[in-house]
Amino acid sequence: MLLVMYIVAIVVEAMSAALAAGRRSMDWVGVCMLGCVTALGGGSVRDMLLGHYPLVWVKHPHYLLITAGAALFTIAVARVMHRLRKLFLLLDAIGLVLFTVIGCNVALEMQLPFVIVIAAGLITGCVGGVLRDVLCADIPLLFRSELYATVSVVTGLVYVGGLQVALPHDLIMVIAMAVGLTLRMMALRFNWSMPKFVYTQDLH
Amino acid sequence: MLLVMYIVAIVVEAMSAALAAGRRSMDWVGVCMLGCVTALGGGSVRDMLLGHYPLVWVKHPHYLLITAGAALFTIAVARVMHRLRKLFLLLDAIGLVLFTVIGCNVALEMQLPFVIVIAAGLITGCVGGVLRDVLCADIPLLFRSELYATVSVVTGLVYVGGLQVALPHDLIMVIAMAVGLTLRMMALRFNWSMPKFVYTQDLH
Amino acid sequence: MLLVMYIVAIVVEAMSAALAAGRRSMDWVGVCMLGCVTALGGGSVRDMLLGHYPLVWVKHPHYLLITAGAALFTIAVARVMHRLRKLFLLLDAIGLVLFTVIGCNVALEMQLPFVIVIAAGLITGCVGGVLRDVLCADIPLLFRSELYATVSVVTGLVYVGGLQVALPHDLIMVIAMAVGLTLRMMALRFNWSMPKFVYTQDLH
Question: Among A1, B149, B155, C39, which is disulfide-ready with C13 (CB 3.0 to 4.6 Å)?
Answer without folding.
Answer: C39
